[in-house]
Amino acid sequence: MGQQKRLLMIDDDPDFVSGIKAILDAANFEVDVAYNPKDGLQALQTKRYDLLLLDIMMGRGAEGIMIARKLRKDPKLREMPVLIITGIREQIAFLFPGEPIHPRFVPVDELVEKPVEPKMLLEKVNRLLQAAEARKARAN
Amino acid sequence: MDDRPKILIIDDEEVVLDSCAQIVEGSHYQAVTASDGTLGLKLVQELQPDLIFVDLKMPGVSGFEVLEKVNEIDPTIVTVVITGYATVSSAVEAMKKGAYDFLPKPFTPDEFRLITRRGLEKRRLELETIALRREKEMLREHFAAIVSHELRAPLNAVQQNLFVFDQELSGKLTEDQKARLERIKSRIDDLLKLVRSWLRVVSVDMGKLKEGFAPVSVIASISKAIESVEPYAVRKDIEIVISINDRLRPIEGDSVTLTEALVNIIGNAVKYSYEGSKVLVRAEEKADHILITVSDTGAGIPREDLPHLFEGFYRGKSGQAVEEGHGLGLALSRRIIEAHNGTISVESELGAGSTFVVSLPALRAQPTPQGG
Fold it and tell me: What residue of B is the nearest CA neighbor of A95?
């Protein structure tokens, strides 16, 4: 499927990250990791990624949502697909009362709950990447 | 700063003020006096006293008016009325208006001290109750965040790495090792689920839930619930048979928690069903109510356990060991359904299966239902 895809994962739990990264490494993705929102945003500014894997509850609260909101406003990054991997689904419902369980943080995202079965993780990642490519092809 | 309890005495008779001040002197509380209602109320604002004695019969602003104003300023301030004439009726009237006690004139120092002590004790308890209530509310609100992160995070990390192990070691493990890894994963999964339902029982504020009620499609909620239970059913080769009248009216409610309640009930039916059996989910409208019936042909519930089924932390104490239940799911479901002005009931026969019936009032008009 073309050249190797580059993914960025932003999550503050190194043990959880290693459990995700191992699956993605084995599936031949190139994965960079940022362990806090600040490093994550910096990585997004300096390197080009095909997909972002984003944790929501980091640091002192839902800092992942901050990142998602920044992405939505950034004309360069808003097309990048985002897979939100979150510890708790209802946490999201608390943050966005009255909205459906899967709020659309950014135009192109998906949400999975921690922990993620390897098969499901790869399915979601591949589907998002394919959708992004199809969009790009249409735009050209 | 003086942090002794503050007493305010409002009376137009100087003798009363003087003697009260004398009685109080040297005690562990401080007293301030006012010779009329207007001055008294000014002092209430400035001092925020713990206890107020107020004469009912004063020229100008009356004792009753003072009581009313104090109640507006701070209802936790304890008030005691001084009744100049020994009429019980005016004291009763005052207590109806919120006074805690009354002190008939003339009174002895001991009587005054006794009522003061009781009044201050009442004030202390009042403040403590408020503080505890606030603390409880804060705990409940923060509980979601604390539990989700502190308890679930390590479990998620462990489980995620077990998934990786499982994948990396596939083909290298013996059957026995494979089975053991499966068991580890399944136990962690139970623990994750337990934390989650516990969290929900504690954190869902049913009162607040009602504020966000909107028309909800029962069909959508049932479909979502089944979707969420399906993987467990497939694993046990259980077929979920659905029979829904697709012209059901919507109900007034919260789709997220309603789905949650149904997940628990349907999940329960799957959990207690035998492999290869069927779980029936039916929805129909009867007498302005939507009836959702979930039946299984599983183990059934012993008669003595039925009355406790919807109580939290109940797992059943008779018969064979209950399979990995934690007794919270049904309790939570009941709370959610009752918040929706509905009811849940169960009929069961040991060895033959159980039937749960949820009844929810249907919406009269037919507005556009909220998605799921």
Answer: B145
